[in-house]
Amino acid sequence: MATEQDESFAEAVIRLKLADASSVGECMKTVADGDAPDLANAMIQRGLLNRETADRVLGETAAPPVSAPGESTHDEPPTIQGYEMISKLGEGGMGSVWQARQTSLDRLVAIKILPPLFSRDKKLIERFRREALATAKLNHPKIVSAIDVGVERREGAPDLQYFVMEYVPGESLEDVINRVGRVPPARAAHIAAAVAEALDYAWEQAGIVHRDVKPGNILITRGGGVKLADLGLARSAWESAGLTTAGLAIGTPHYASPEQAQGKQDIDTRSDIYALGATMFHMLTGRTVYEGDSAAVVMAQHVNQDAPSCRDVNPQVPASLSAVVSKMMRRHPPERYQSAKELLADLVRFQDGERPLAYTRMLDAYESSHGGFTSRAPEVFTSGAAEAARERGRARHRHWPHALAATLFVGAVAFAVWYAVEQTQSPPAGAGGAAAHVDLWFEVSNPDGVVGWGGSFPLEFNAGSRVRYRVKPRGLAYLYVLMIFSNASSGAVRPQLLAPTGGQSTPLLTNALSQFPESGGFYPLPPSTDNVIFLVAASKENLPGAEVIASLDRMSRELSRGGWAASAKVPSGRTLWYDHPEDRWGTGGVEPPSDKTAAALNTLCEKIRAAFGERPVALSGAATSCAGD
Questions:
Q1: Are 476 and 539 in contact (CB under 8 A)?
Q2: Which pLDDT score, from 0 to 100, does residue 534 have?
Q3: Please, which of 17, 25, 260, 490 could form a disulfide with 256 given CB 3.0 to 4.6 Å?
Q4: Would you state the pLDDT for residue 280?
């Protein structure tokens, strides 16, 4: 039967990361079954701990004696020559951290003091000092600077091993998350980019893997700056020859990579990238990736499950940023970003309003799996096969007239069959049924860029810019492409029907990728515009273009007279998105639009729906300022 001493021993072993919770749990069962007298002996029998380490942990977890008057207490400031202790900043498995003043230079510093358990292991201390010295050689604005490492000798008590760092006024990212819940996507990307920059520098300059990236080790300065702390200390403390044993898990359970959770030793910077991805997930959603009753349960999920998408928890996270986090948290290292530099490039793309490569590849995969156009891989010939391939090509050229005739015949038959089926399946006028949702994104010229759902048009987007719509309906639909220009100063509102141009709309098939203008090129914006709304209306029924244009003319007169343009103005640098089936305007997670702006844009959508009468219609679109420089 496990005792309170066994429970305390188990907590200490997991807290000090000498073994993972799963291994400890198995040993507790051994004790409960009567096969071992206590947990310490059970772990020794399994080879998880040696006797020396087990005795040290037992000494640390023994009930402390009652302090006599005048004796030192646990929270009493330690004495280290050359430093005046001011206050305790915190405490964890790696020891306590104190704010102190370095008397020689009269400056504030932070001092981390290792637990007495670590102070008795010579091999660990040697490794700790070596890693601390390596960290001290790093000089980077995003890394907490190392100042000193040393030992304070004490008679009748364990020596104090300490590490002196720069003091960073502010708070940890963990404190920020606890206070605000979710961090806005733009701010989360900024923080992650700063950490990625620090990880890249540490890896490229010194080959250092942090191994414990988490919100508690990311510091936010009072000015909003970002610094990564404890770089290199995790490796020092957890990779001692006496402590690296079977079942050792390196990393905090909620942020540990699968290879860390499995106790693998051959890890590199890609494990830090995974941990940073888990940290980003926590920032964006307000919760950790996995939840469980014990560290073992959480670690098992990291090992056996694919991480959920941020948007599954918080739909307001931009799809492009969610794709970046998903790539960071791939279970298998070769599928992640292969370096912090590669990750940093994608985060910078997101911050600049461009499409991250991870999002581009996700869309390409979506196109491939849903019948979209994909690029064909180049053909690779084995030795001697090139001439045969060329001969096959010449033969195809000789028979091209026959092939063309056959293709035209098959195409005509296929179209006739499709048209007959669609005419049979399409609902008659006035029939009910929900309209198909449309996936929508934009290509921009001057400045060049691609804007997907939840993203932002470039800050330089202005009345001289041009836009191309990219659409894909999720069901058979007639599409009506609209652009609404407005000017807050004059109050003028000008809606335009960009497509169909011939009066009658042609239905698009499910997942058929199309562009507008259909002939290529871009739609220009009039020079007097300071606000623009791009909308696509999808209907299961055809509506003559003349009717739509007449409704838009009436809408233009009504909105221009009512001061709508000023109410609907989107702040400079912001982009709002309208999505079906939620049928509401949002910002992709940065912050909600003002009630006044949202109400004005909702009025616009109601009037556009009214143009279709009783026909069900789905709207998708974006609204942005075009007053950029």
A1: no
A2: 94
A3: 260
A4: 96
Distance (Å, rounded) from C-alpha 572 to C-alpha 457?
A: 10
83-166: which CATH number, 3.90.220.20, 3.20.20.70, 3.30.200.20, 3.90.226.10?
Answer: 3.30.200.20
Q: Does domain 438-625 have CATH number 2.70.50?
A: yes
For this structure, is 212 an active site residue? yes
Spatial CA neighbour of 456 closest among 350, 337, 560, 336: 350
Contact partners, residue 120, CB within 8 Å, separation at least 6: 56, 158
Q: Please tell me the CATH code under which domain 182-232+242-366 is placed.
A: 1.10.510.10
pTM above the 0.85 mark? no
Report domain extents, the chain: 4-61, 83-166, 182-232+242-366, 438-625
pLDDT at 428 (0 to 100): 39
Of 6, 121, 200, 212, the catalytic one is: 212
The CA-atom distances, in angstroms, between 619 and each of 30, 328, 580, 616 are 62, 33, 6, 10
pLDDT for position 193: 95
Q: Which two tokens stand for residue 629?
A: 């420089």
pLDDT at site 389: 44
Residues of the chain falling short of pLDDT 50: 63-73, 234, 236-250, 369-387, 389-390, 393-394, 396-397, 418, 421-432, 590
User: What b-and-e string marks burial along 493-525, b requiring 16 or more CB atoms within 10 Å of the CB?
Assistant: bbbebbbbeeeebebbeebeebebeeeeebbeb
**What are 134's two structure tokens?**
């390596």
